[in-house]
Amino acid sequence: MKNLCLLFLCLFLVSPPAFAAKANEYRNVKVKKLITSSTSSDGEPLIYLNTAQPEVTALIVTIPVGGSTGWHQHPVPVYAYVMEGALTVELKDGRTFLFKKGDAIFEVINTLHNGYNAGHVPVTLVVFYTGAVGVPNVIKEHL
Predict the structure, then answer these.
(1) How many Cβ atoms sit within 10 Å of the Cβ of residue 69?
(2) Can you give the pTM of this predicted structure?
(3) DSSP-derived 3-state class of residue 48
(4) Which of 28, 52, 59, 114 registers the highest number of CB atoms within 10 A of its CB?
(5) Model confidence at 2: pLDDT above 70
(6) Which of 19-33, 37-51, 92-106, 111-125 has the lowest mean pLDDT?
(7) 10 Å Cβ neighbour count for 3?
(8) Rounded Cα gap, residues 67 and 34, in angstroms
(9) Which residues of 70-99 are buried (b: 16+ CB within 10 A; e: fewer)?
(10) d(CA 76, CA 68)
(11) Are residues 29 and 42 in the same domain?
(12) Which domain holds residue 43?
């Protein structure tokens, strides 16, 4: 686990070209940049929580064909990677975004949205919530 955490830090703290130049020292590790952005998927600026008690949660989320997350929002920054399938994310203002296998997602913050699978295969995501102890990662819309 310690080695995995060290590799994770290297991938995010060291620039990919610098890390790639030393790949042979790390058993031929290959690095492919997925995305760099200062905005979430809807174009709003990314934020970081100011907290003395940070908490990161990592999940594998599978959405079946025809399934959806339901309307919800995140009060914390959320990052995801589409491992399989295609996810459509709809915002309350009607805008939609399509994320396909291999796409990285900077999720919208404090914005109601619904993710759904309109495809023909299940959607599988790796999701990272960068939150704080005692702060919910997801707030469902109450109808």
Answers:
(1) 16
(2) 0.79
(3) coil
(4) 114
(5) no
(6) 19-33
(7) 7
(8) 26
(9) ebebbebbbbbbbeebbbbbbbeeeeebeb
(10) 20
(11) no
(12) 38-140
Tokens encoding 114: 């619904």
Q: Per-residue pLDDT tens for 71-97? A: 999 999 999 999 999 999 999 999 999
Identify the CATH number of the domain in which residue 105 sits: 2.60.120.10
How far is residue 108 CA from its own chain's centroid?
10
Spatial separation of the C-alpha atoms in residues 6 and 8, rounded to whole Å = 5
72 and 128 share one domain: yes
129 and 60 assigned to the same domain = yes
User: 102-130 burial by CB neighbour count: b if 16+ within 10 A, else e?
Assistant: ebbbbbbbebebbbbbebeeebbbebbbb
